[in-house]
Amino acid sequence: MTAVAERTQTPARPSISTAQPKRRWSLLVGGLLLVLLSAGVFAVIQLGGDARLQVLAVARPVAAGQPISAADLRTVGVVPDPTIKLVAAGQAQQIVGRTPAVPLAEGVLLTESQLGPASWPDAGQAVVATALKPGQVPAGIAPGSRVLVVMVAKDGGPADPALRSAPVSVPATVVEVVPGADGADTTVVSLLLGRDDATKVAGSGSAVSLVVVGGS
Protein backbone atom coordinates (compact mmCIF):
# COMPACT_ATOMS: atom_id res chain seq x y z
CA MET A 1 0.00 0.00 0.00
CA THR A 2 1.41 3.26 -1.01
CA ALA A 3 1.14 6.11 1.41
CA VAL A 4 0.48 9.43 -0.10
CA ALA A 5 1.67 12.32 1.87
CA GLU A 6 -0.30 15.44 1.41
CA ARG A 7 1.40 18.73 2.11
CA THR A 8 -0.80 20.93 4.00
CA GLN A 9 -0.31 24.51 2.86
CA THR A 10 -0.16 26.93 5.73
CA PRO A 11 -2.32 29.94 4.96
CA ALA A 12 -0.26 33.13 4.53
CA ARG A 13 -0.56 35.69 7.28
CA PRO A 14 -2.04 38.96 6.16
CA SER A 15 0.63 41.67 5.86
CA ILE A 16 0.41 44.43 8.39
CA SER A 17 0.98 47.84 6.89
CA THR A 18 3.36 50.14 8.75
CA ALA A 19 1.99 53.28 7.14
CA GLN A 20 -0.70 53.79 9.82
CA PRO A 21 1.68 53.87 12.85
CA LYS A 22 4.10 56.16 11.00
CA ARG A 23 1.30 58.59 10.26
CA ARG A 24 0.22 58.58 13.90
CA TRP A 25 3.76 59.30 15.04
CA SER A 26 4.09 62.23 12.63
CA LEU A 27 0.82 63.71 13.89
CA LEU A 28 1.94 63.25 17.48
CA VAL A 29 5.30 64.97 16.85
CA GLY A 30 3.61 67.79 14.95
CA GLY A 31 1.16 68.36 17.78
CA LEU A 32 3.95 68.37 20.34
CA LEU A 33 5.90 70.96 18.34
CA LEU A 34 2.79 73.14 18.10
CA VAL A 35 2.30 72.99 21.87
CA LEU A 36 5.95 73.95 22.46
CA LEU A 37 5.69 76.84 20.00
CA SER A 38 2.52 78.15 21.64
CA ALA A 39 4.16 77.92 25.07
CA GLY A 40 7.17 79.86 23.78
CA VAL A 41 5.02 82.64 22.32
CA PHE A 42 3.03 82.86 25.56
CA ALA A 43 6.26 83.08 27.58
CA VAL A 44 7.59 85.89 25.37
CA ILE A 45 4.34 87.83 25.77
CA GLN A 46 4.36 87.32 29.52
CA LEU A 47 7.99 88.39 29.85
CA GLY A 48 7.33 91.45 27.69
CA GLY A 49 4.39 92.39 29.90
CA ASP A 50 6.41 91.91 33.07
CA ALA A 51 9.11 94.24 31.71
CA ARG A 52 6.70 97.16 31.61
CA LEU A 53 7.10 99.65 34.45
CA GLN A 54 4.28 101.84 35.77
CA VAL A 55 5.49 105.43 35.69
CA LEU A 56 4.04 108.94 35.92
CA ALA A 57 3.11 110.99 32.87
CA VAL A 58 1.72 114.51 32.54
CA ALA A 59 -2.07 114.50 32.12
CA ARG A 60 -2.36 118.18 31.16
CA PRO A 61 0.03 121.09 30.54
CA VAL A 62 1.79 122.45 33.63
CA ALA A 63 3.65 125.78 33.58
CA ALA A 64 7.15 126.13 35.00
CA GLY A 65 6.95 126.97 38.70
CA GLN A 66 3.30 125.90 39.00
CA PRO A 67 2.68 123.37 41.82
CA ILE A 68 1.77 119.96 40.45
CA SER A 69 -1.60 118.55 41.50
CA ALA A 70 -2.86 114.97 41.44
CA ALA A 71 -5.03 115.86 38.42
CA ASP A 72 -1.89 116.81 36.49
CA LEU A 73 -0.58 113.23 36.66
CA ARG A 74 -1.55 109.88 35.19
CA THR A 75 -0.04 106.41 35.19
CA VAL A 76 1.28 104.69 32.07
CA GLY A 77 3.12 101.42 31.46
CA VAL A 78 6.41 101.63 29.57
CA VAL A 79 9.51 99.56 28.96
CA PRO A 80 12.07 101.79 30.72
CA ASP A 81 15.30 103.07 29.23
CA PRO A 82 18.01 102.61 31.90
CA THR A 83 19.58 105.93 30.86
CA ILE A 84 16.41 107.91 31.71
CA LYS A 85 15.34 108.20 35.36
CA LEU A 86 11.55 108.09 35.15
CA VAL A 87 9.38 108.69 38.20
CA ALA A 88 7.61 105.51 39.38
CA ALA A 89 3.82 105.63 39.73
CA GLY A 90 4.15 104.80 43.43
CA GLN A 91 5.82 108.16 44.05
CA ALA A 92 2.78 110.21 42.96
CA GLN A 93 2.09 111.49 46.48
CA GLN A 94 5.67 112.74 46.78
CA ILE A 95 5.40 114.57 43.44
CA VAL A 96 2.15 116.42 44.22
CA GLY A 97 2.98 119.93 45.42
CA ARG A 98 6.38 120.07 43.77
CA THR A 99 7.07 122.44 40.89
CA PRO A 100 8.51 121.75 37.44
CA ALA A 101 11.60 123.67 36.44
CA VAL A 102 10.38 123.76 32.83
CA PRO A 103 6.92 123.70 31.24
CA LEU A 104 5.46 120.19 31.04
CA ALA A 105 3.42 119.27 27.97
CA GLU A 106 0.57 116.77 28.08
CA GLY A 107 1.72 113.18 27.60
CA VAL A 108 5.34 113.78 28.61
CA LEU A 109 6.89 111.11 30.87
CA LEU A 110 7.93 112.70 34.16
CA THR A 111 11.59 112.64 35.19
CA GLU A 112 13.36 113.97 38.28
CA SER A 113 15.42 116.33 36.12
CA GLN A 114 12.24 118.21 35.16
CA LEU A 115 11.43 119.08 38.77
CA GLY A 116 12.79 121.92 40.86
CA PRO A 117 12.69 125.72 41.07
CA ALA A 118 11.60 127.41 37.87
CA SER A 119 14.63 127.86 35.66
CA TRP A 120 12.75 128.85 32.55
CA PRO A 121 12.88 130.75 30.28
CA ASP A 122 16.60 130.69 29.74
CA ALA A 123 18.71 133.83 29.90
CA GLY A 124 18.08 136.01 26.85
CA GLN A 125 14.61 134.55 26.27
CA ALA A 126 11.14 135.72 27.25
CA VAL A 127 7.52 134.59 27.05
CA VAL A 128 4.86 136.87 25.61
CA ALA A 129 1.11 136.28 25.33
CA THR A 130 -0.78 137.34 22.23
CA ALA A 131 -4.57 137.57 21.91
CA LEU A 132 -5.53 136.42 18.44
CA LYS A 133 -8.79 136.39 16.51
CA PRO A 134 -10.01 133.71 14.07
CA GLY A 135 -7.87 133.76 10.96
CA GLN A 136 -4.75 134.72 12.90
CA VAL A 137 -4.18 131.28 14.43
CA PRO A 138 -3.32 128.31 12.17
CA ALA A 139 -5.32 125.12 12.63
CA GLY A 140 -3.62 122.42 14.69
CA ILE A 141 -1.25 124.77 16.49
CA ALA A 142 -0.10 123.31 19.81
CA PRO A 143 2.64 123.65 22.44
CA GLY A 144 5.98 122.99 20.78
CA SER A 145 4.94 124.30 17.36
CA ARG A 146 7.51 126.54 15.73
CA VAL A 147 5.97 129.66 14.23
CA LEU A 148 6.71 133.03 12.72
CA VAL A 149 5.04 135.96 14.47
CA VAL A 150 4.02 138.29 11.64
CA MET A 151 3.30 141.89 12.64
CA VAL A 152 1.35 144.15 10.29
CA ALA A 153 0.64 147.83 10.99
CA LYS A 154 -2.99 148.60 11.76
CA ASP A 155 -4.68 151.14 9.50
CA GLY A 156 -4.74 154.54 11.17
CA GLY A 157 -3.12 153.27 14.38
CA PRO A 158 0.29 153.87 15.91
CA ALA A 159 2.83 151.24 15.04
CA ASP A 160 6.53 150.66 14.65
CA PRO A 161 7.68 152.75 11.64
CA ALA A 162 9.37 149.66 10.23
CA LEU A 163 5.96 147.99 9.96
CA ARG A 164 4.49 150.68 7.75
CA SER A 165 6.55 149.64 4.75
CA ALA A 166 6.43 145.86 5.10
CA PRO A 167 5.35 143.22 7.62
CA VAL A 168 7.97 142.13 10.14
CA SER A 169 8.27 138.54 11.36
CA VAL A 170 10.20 136.96 14.23
CA PRO A 171 10.61 133.24 15.07
CA ALA A 172 8.99 131.81 18.18
CA THR A 173 7.93 128.57 19.82
CA VAL A 174 4.38 128.03 21.10
CA VAL A 175 4.25 127.39 24.84
CA GLU A 176 0.51 127.33 25.51
CA VAL A 177 -2.74 127.74 23.59
CA VAL A 178 -5.91 128.86 25.40
CA PRO A 179 -8.93 129.00 23.06
CA GLY A 180 -11.97 131.06 23.99
CA ALA A 181 -10.05 132.96 26.65
CA ASP A 182 -12.61 135.79 26.68
CA GLY A 183 -15.58 133.46 26.48
CA ALA A 184 -15.85 134.19 22.78
CA ASP A 185 -13.56 133.55 19.83
CA THR A 186 -10.28 134.99 21.09
CA THR A 187 -7.36 132.58 21.42
CA VAL A 188 -4.48 133.48 23.71
CA VAL A 189 -1.18 131.99 22.57
CA SER A 190 1.91 132.19 24.79
CA LEU A 191 5.14 132.35 22.79
CA LEU A 192 8.76 131.74 23.71
CA LEU A 193 11.18 133.96 21.79
CA GLY A 194 14.25 136.11 22.17
CA ARG A 195 13.94 138.89 24.73
CA ASP A 196 14.37 141.66 22.17
CA ASP A 197 11.84 140.06 19.84
CA ALA A 198 9.39 139.61 22.73
CA THR A 199 9.65 143.33 23.51
CA LYS A 200 9.07 144.11 19.83
CA VAL A 201 5.96 141.91 19.67
CA ALA A 202 4.49 143.17 22.95
CA GLY A 203 5.03 146.85 22.10
CA SER A 204 4.36 146.86 18.39
CA GLY A 205 0.70 147.91 18.63
CA SER A 206 0.18 146.07 15.37
CA ALA A 207 -1.99 143.24 14.17
CA VAL A 208 -0.29 139.90 14.85
CA SER A 209 -0.72 136.65 12.99
CA LEU A 210 1.06 133.31 13.37
CA VAL A 211 2.55 131.25 10.57
CA VAL A 212 3.55 127.64 11.28
CA VAL A 213 7.10 126.86 10.17
CA GLY A 214 7.95 123.50 8.60
CA GLY A 215 9.53 120.96 10.93
CA SER A 216 7.29 121.86 13.88
Summarize the structure.
The chain has 4 helices and 7 strands. The protein is an alpha+beta fold. The chain is elongated, with a radius of gyration of 37 Å.
Q: What is the 3D shape?
A: elongated
Largest sheet: 5 strands, antiparallel
**Structural class by helix and strand composition:** alpha+beta
- Number of distinct beta strands: 7
Whole-angstrom Rg: 37 Å
Adjacency order of strands in the biggest sheet: 3-6-5-4-7
Helices and strands, in order, run as: HEEHEEHEEHE
Uncertain residue segments: 1-5
Helix fraction, binned, reads: 10-25%
Number of helices: 4
Distance linking N and C termini: 123 Å
Strand content: 15-25%
Mean pLDDT: 77
Could you please describe the fold and organization of this structure?
The structure is a single chain. With 216 residues, this protein is an alpha+beta fold. It contains four helices and seven strands; from the N terminus they run αββαββαββαβ. It has helices at 19-50, 92-95, 161-165, 195-202; strands spanning 53-58, 73-78, 125-132, 146-152, 168-178, 187-194, 207-212. The longest helix is centred in the first third of the chain and has 32 residues, at 19-50.
List keywords for this structure.
4 helices, five-stranded antiparallel β-sheet, alpha+beta, elongated, 24% strand, 216 residues
Task: Record the SSE blueprint.
Elements lengths: L18 H32 L2 E6 L14 E6 L13 H4 L29 E8 L13 E7 L8 H5 L2 E11 L8 E8 H8 L4 E6 L4
Antiparallel strand pairs: 1-2, 3-6, 4-5, 4-7, 5-6
